[in-house]
Specification:
Shape: elongated
Strand content: under 5%
Low-confidence stretches: none
Helix content: over 70%
Mean pLDDT: 86
Largest sheet: none
Structural class: mainly alpha
Number of helices: 3
Radius of gyration: 18 Å
């Protein structure tokens, strides 16, 4: 998969997961307990992870060497 495709998928995941966080921030005060647990433990960590991968993901992918089909057949 090309890096541009991965980045586009990460961007859309980041945007979709950010929507409930905005809802949590701007919801009425009496509804906050309903949104607190999923926002803290699901939406925010996923948004943080996708943001970090978009920002510094190129350095992470450099840690894993690319394997060519010839190298896999040589095993």
């Amino acid at each position: 998969m090309k890096w541009g495709t991965v980045r586009m998928i990460l961007r859309w995941i980041h945007i979709v997961v950010a929507i409930p966080i905005y809802g949590y921030c701007y919801s009425p005060f009496d509804k906050l307990p309903l949104y607190a647990r999923p926002t803290r433990y699901v939406f925010f960590p996923v948004m943080l992870l996708t943001g970090l991968l978009m920002w510094k993901g190129h350095l992470l992918w450099k840690l894993f060497p690319k394997r060519t089909p010839e190298a896999q057949l040589a095993k």
